[in-house]
Structure formats: C-alpha cells, structure tokens
Amino acid sequence: MRKIILSISIICAGLSLHSCADFLNVDKYFYDMLSVDSAFSKRVYVDGWLANNYDYLGRTNLSPYSSWFQWASDDLVHPDGKSLQQCNYSANNFPNEDFNEHLRRCYECIRKASTFIEKVPECKEMTLEEISDMQGQARFLRAFAYFSLLQTYGPVPLIPEKGLDVSLSYEDLSLPRATFDEVIDFIDNDLAIAARILFPSRAQNNMGRPTRGAALALRARALLFAASPMSNGNKDFYNIRNLDGTVLYNQEYDESKWARAAAAAEDVINLDKYELHIVAPDEKNPYSVTPPEHPVYSHLDFPDGWQNVDPYSSYKYIFDGTIRGSKNPELIFTRTGVEGSHGIQDCWNHKSMPRTSGGGNRIGVTQKMVDTYYMDNGKSIEEAGDYYIKDGFTVTAKEPEMGVGSLFIGANVSKMYGRREPRFYASIAFNGAIWDCESTSKISEKNYQCWYYQDEFNGKEGYKTNLPLTGVGLKKYTNKEDSWSEGGYRTSKTEPTIRYAEILLIHAEALNEITSGKTYTIKTFNDQEVQINRDVVKMRKSMKPIRMRAGLPDFDDATYGDPTNFRAALKRERHIELFTENSFRYFDLRRWKDANIDEAAPLMGCNIDITMANDVRQEYYVPTPVTYIQKVFLPKMYLFPFPQAELKRNVNLTQNPEW
C-alpha cells in the first residue's frame, strides 16, 4: 500500500484562479505519489487543486508561449535569442533554465489534471454540472500541456491516466515515447470530451478559464499541426524511433488529416459565438484610417467591405489594452496572470519601448518582416512597382503622398515606410516613428520621434548596442498612454492566447490542402458526420473577413482556385496577422518544413552604423546583415532535444536525432 504524502495549506480566502500557487505541495511530477481522498472531500480543496493546476498554464516556460522561441525565428531579433539562432545549445547546455523546467512543469500539469479528473466526482459539495465543467477544465489543461510538449520535442510519453504503481522498479516505471498519432489522438479526445462538458461561457472574473469554444479552438490548432508536412508522412523523420524500433512518425501521407483540421475549425465557427473585432471610423481619432478608395469594398459594410471599419484601430486595440479582453468578441482564450519577464508588459511592452521612455529598446524587427507587409492598395512590395518608394525622405509630417502612412509618418522619415497597410503601422516602429507616451510627466517625452541612427540616444552609441539590432522596432503591444518614464504607467493588456482570426486561417489553410474533387466524411466533436472538401466558397468566407478588417482587397479567383498560389498567400497572411503571437512563426516554419529555407538565410535589417547626416542617411536603409547574430539552421533544429538529465531518469526515452 502506498504511503500518503499530502501537504495542504489553506491560507487564502476567496480563492482566485492563480492565488494559491503552493496550495498543494507535490514534489514529484512523473508519478502519482498521492492518495488524495481527503483533498477532494471539500469544495475549497477542490478549488485549490484546480487553481494550482492553472499555475502551470500561466508559467510562460510552456514553450510555445514563451518569448524564447519568438527570438529564434526569422522575423524578430533580440540579444537573448542569440544562442537559439546560432544553435549554441545542446541536451546538456540550454540557453536558459526555462528549457530545463519546461518538460517537468508540463508533466506536473498532466499528472495533477489526471488525478483531478479521476477524483473530483467524490466531492459531495458540488453539483454534477460543476463537476463536469471542472473535469472539462482539467482535460483542457492536460491537452494544453501535451500539445506544448509535442510542438517542442515531437512524440513524448503518454502518462497512464490513473497514475503509476510506485512499487515498481525505476526502470519499469520508465515510459517510452508514444507515436505522434497516439499523442495527437489523446489530445483530440481530451479536447472533444472537454468541449462537450465545459460551460459555453464564463463570467468576466473567470475569463482565464476555458470554455467550450476554447477547447474546440485548441483542438483545431493541434489537428492543423498534425496535418502539416513535418508530421504527416515526413520521410526525414524515419529515424525517430523507440528502443524497440517503433517508428514514431507515420511515414505515409494522410490527406484526411487536413479534413479533420478543417472540420475542427468549423466546429468553432459553427458555435456562432465569435467574430473579428472591428472599430468604426472616428473623425475624432487622429489615427482612424480610411483605406484607399476601392470601387467595391469602400462602399460595403464588413465583412463584405470596409466601409464601416477603421482597420488600424480594429487590429491595434486587440493588443494594446484599449479593449478589455472580456469585451473582445474575437478573444477565445487567454492565459490570465501571465506576468514576469515573459509577460506582455515586461517582455513585449518594456523590451520594445525606446530608452527615452524608460524601455529596454532591444526588440528588432527584421527587414524580411518589414517587406512581408502589403502596400495599402493590397499589392506586395514585389508587385507594387513605382508605388513602393525606396528612396527619399519626407519633408513634413502627414504628407498625403504617404497614403495610409500619412497619419503616422513625421518629417525626415524614409519614404519606404509610406503607403503600407494599417497592420504595419499598428505593429512596426520604423526609424522616426512617433511614440505618444501620454502618461509620462516629462513633456519632452510625449509624442517623441524616435531615431535609431548611430549616435542618436536610441541608436548605437560607440560599441554599445542598446537598440533594436535591425534598426526597426516593435509597437504592437504599446498603447498611446504607455510610458516607463517618470510619472508614466502602462495600460493592462490581455494575451491573445487563442483568437478567432487564427481559427479562420486554420479553416482556410486546411481546406486548401484537400485535393479538388475529393470529399471526406469527418465526425465533429459531438459525433455528427460532416462532409469536407476543397470548397472555395468556404475558403473565401474565412479569409475575406481578415482582409476586409485589414483594409485590403480580397484575393482574386485565380489565387483561391490554385492550391499553390493560395498556400503562398495564406502563409504570408498568417505571418502578418499573427506576427509575434504565441511563437507562431517559429512553429509554422517547422510544421510547413520551410525552416530549412527561411531560417537558413542571414538576419537582415538596416545599417545601424549610419548616422542621421543628410549626405549618408540613405545608406541606413540598405539591407544589412545583423552581425551580432550569425543565423544558422540545421535539420536537427526541427525538434528540440530532451534534456540529458531526463534521458538518465527515463531509460526508455530516446533522444531526437543528432542531439
């Protein structure tokens, strides 16, 4: 009989989601060491156990939601990402303790969730509906943790749901990796069950707890990952095996996986609960954008056009705290209480704001990302011809020649930043961008034009590189009131962990990958059968609202009709729309098997060694490699290595190849 090890410290009244991180002191993560009957005898204990489980969700070293992987792709540069960018890490030497903690914390979350699911029905102080909802929350948390592991390491061990017999030897307790499909099926099943029993909505003070829509949305994200080239018939992964020779990735391509992902996205869409966040034009708002005249879209309301949409504010307000998360119809799920070094405020907001405003001034956006954004007429810079002005500078602020950019561009700014789409101005701090900083008490720091030229306060000073290493910064998570300077404050912001735009993009991408003429019969989360095929009408219905919200013309029939053309358009749209969110770019390039191309090229930016002098300043904008980071990509970097210490603990765990 197992010994009971239980330490409960009830020190909190009015327990909230993350208020008792140490409510239950449980040391081990791989084995269920507890007899927990007493822990589920009272409602307050049950609340405490579940709240403790959410603490693991809130820890930002659940890797897809950590900034570390954001710094490791091709669109952002930060000094902290140097080791990842250059592959200066190994199973014995990780760039940060977060990576050693990731595996342990995920399995703690999984084990506690499994115990909760099994034991919570024993609580007599709760209704059946409350018990079911709480079990649904625990299933969501368990699936969230498994998916985080799967994205990072590939196939991982699946822990028996009712724990392990600790009377067994350590070697017998060691578990081999499950196959990729087994892990995905487990996640799929957990989330489908969760969606059937979770409450459909939450009170405002519980917005960090998942709903039916959140479970379905995470399920769609996971199934898209499973359908993608890295995990679906990837011959390059033939040597990822267990000790008994079991191949962990199915070597045969299965197109029906795309249909499963499309059906999962439709499950979310068919809830008819979520919609894209839009803001109406407001003549009192100096940043209210009206897109260039279009013969159709300028005269139709959303989602058929943009007549009643301010594209800049509609997008910007999602991230800068202007709209509360509880009021945002696009928000499906958010991790609440995520602060510290990797929270939006400290990670994104502080690290991106200029030193003038008390910020870290270190996040750089690559030239590749700058060039990814469309012009305000919907053309790419490659298609724009003379409409894209490469040379020259504005003379005054608000020059009409700058198109949509005239609202955001002051004097002496490179014209290459003019005439861009509204999401560009909502996200990118180009050289000479205006930072409002309305809350600071220092008048000189309000409406400040920030320059990254050499010898400027926010630029390179001698050998000091306290600036964005690309010479282009980030503004996506900055509110006009924000300042870290004297008297300043920052608006509260909501992490968009899952939002509806992602679901629409998942739906369009998955449908596009189905062979024309083929139809698949797929079961929904509640076991209803649906027919899924490459339906261009459905693809357009998902993609067009995102384009209209952005103030950009919809793609033409030729793009929708050709899978190759639409795939390229989808990848670009996803890169822009979801830029800096949830490490999407890092994991997208891997699941598409594009990382060996996109991440192998040098990181490019502006020439930060050029001053503001009139005779040389044009040279600042010549694309220049970021010399501080020598970007590399090796095939082994598609998956992360298991820590060597974990391989010693679990003798049946196999390492990913070449690590």
What's this, in brief?
The chain has 659 residues and is mainly alpha-helical.
Sequence-ordered SSE layout with sheet pairings:
Elements (H helix, E strand, L loop, with lengths): L42 H16 L8 H4 L5 E2 L4 H4 L11 H23 L8 H26 L16 H4 L6 H18 L14 H16 L28 H14 L41 H10 L10 E3 L10 H9 L11 E2 L1 H6 L49 H6 E2 L4 E2 L12 E2 L23 E2 L23 E2 H13 L6 E5 L5 E5 L2 H14 L7 H5 L1 H15 L6 H8 L3 H4 L5 E2 L18 E2 L18 H6 L10
Antiparallel strand pairs: 1-3, 2-8, 4-7, 5-6, 9-10, 11-12
Helix pairs in contact: 1-4, 1-5, 4-5, 5-7, 5-8, 7-8, 8-9, 8-14, 9-14, 14-15, 14-17
Structural description of this entry:
This protein starts with 42 loop residues before the first helix and ends in a 10-residue tail after the last helix. It has 20 helices and twelve strands. Strand 9 (519-523) and strand 10 (529-533) form a beta hairpin. It has 659 residues and is mostly helical. The protein has a two-stranded antiparallel ribbon.
What labels describe this entry?
single chain, 34% helix, mainly alpha, 659 residues
Strands, count: 12
Shape: globular
Q: What class would the helix/strand composition place it in?
A: mainly alpha
- Give the proportion of residues in helices: 25-40%
Mean pLDDT: 90
Portion in beta strands: under 5%
Q: Main beta sheet, described? A: 2 strands, antiparallel
Instruction: Write down the Rg.
Output: 25 Å
Strand order of the largest sheet: 1-3
Uncertain runs are: 1-34
- Whole-Å distance between the termini? 40 Å
Tally of separate helices: 20
